[in-house]
Amino acid sequence: MTLIDHSSRKHRLLLLGTAVAALALLGLSLTTPGASDAASSTTAYVPPIKHVFVINIENKGYDKTWGAGSAAPYLSQTLRSQGVLLNTYYGTAHNSQPNYIAQISGQGPNDQMQSDCQVYSQFTGTGTAAPGQAIGSGCVFPTSVPNLTDQLSAQKLTWKSYMEDMATPCLHPALNSPDPTQKATVGNQYAVRHNPFMYFASITGSPTCGQHVVNLDALSSDLASAGTTPNLSYITPNLCHDGHDSPCVDGQPGGLTSVDAWLKIWVPKIVNSPAYQNDGMLVITADESDGPQTDATACCGEGPGPNAALPGITGPGGGRIGALVLSRYVKPNTWSTTSYNHYSLLASIEDIFRLPYLGYAQTTGLNRFGLDVYNSGWNKP
What we know:
Oligomer: single chain
CATH superfamily: Alkaline Phosphatase, subunit A
Strand order of the largest sheet: 10-8-11-3-12-13-4-14
CATH class: Alpha Beta
Number of helices: 12
Radius of gyration: 19 Å
Number of strands: 16
CATH architecture: 3-Layer(aba) Sandwich
Shape: globular
């Protein structure tokens, strides 16, 4: 099945919140559908971060990644010693795809998302439910369902999705066609289901999609200056380097061994870049635990949604995975026991960029990164 490269097609640009900048100047809130005011985003504990980097590895529970004997010592020891480990951080669903969607939109899973969107199906909606949930089934959300990139673009902030092994920019299957990237092949280990930006029509239908959703190789040159580094850089390794496959189709070991080798190449490029050094934050986490039969636990009040009684297929969530945060605003070799999940990550990014909360990021009482994460004492007089 042929994938579609929208960098070569012209479509009407559909953006939400065209009056956001004017509203912001007046001190008013964004009225994006499904969003609520980010009341805490102006509080003093949110550092002046201007560049956020997010890296996801695949299908790794907390103990496997961060426990004694981890097969990723660079991640679990070297990098861990440089940041704060969130040891009660959870995935929000099984299988992989809805966890990525949660991180950029706050949308919960439905049955097709839980099966990793074997067919690149158009979402068919029947209504909405609080907080900000589109009711229905399918994988590719219409332009009426907002995501983080809509918010960033409306505020004149920049973003890019860096996808390893993606052959051409903005690459995805034809609508309502089978997804041929469900299994890696030699020379092509890109997985559309690990690229959440391909599931929003406001992105795939934009003539600028190919400028935003690019191959990982572009990251090196973009990191050369703060001016060329996006405000949000969302980075996905291929099916071998994210630890999904073990062994890999090209003979590499895969699993956490290949995760570690990949991180040794790319994390130094990020943390030594001008943007990160000036005002950056890097978050490294996993999409979900080892699988629904292993750990489908949840935190943060997550429960049944309008489209899935059990977001974790066999339980309420995606299991305990942990997350590591690196930044000048973070004290090295520390940890936080506060409960977080992917919706918390979305809300925390929205706090940083002074954006309203989308979807389940609006959940009452949901923890967002605070002084337990931004713990370097940066804001002390």
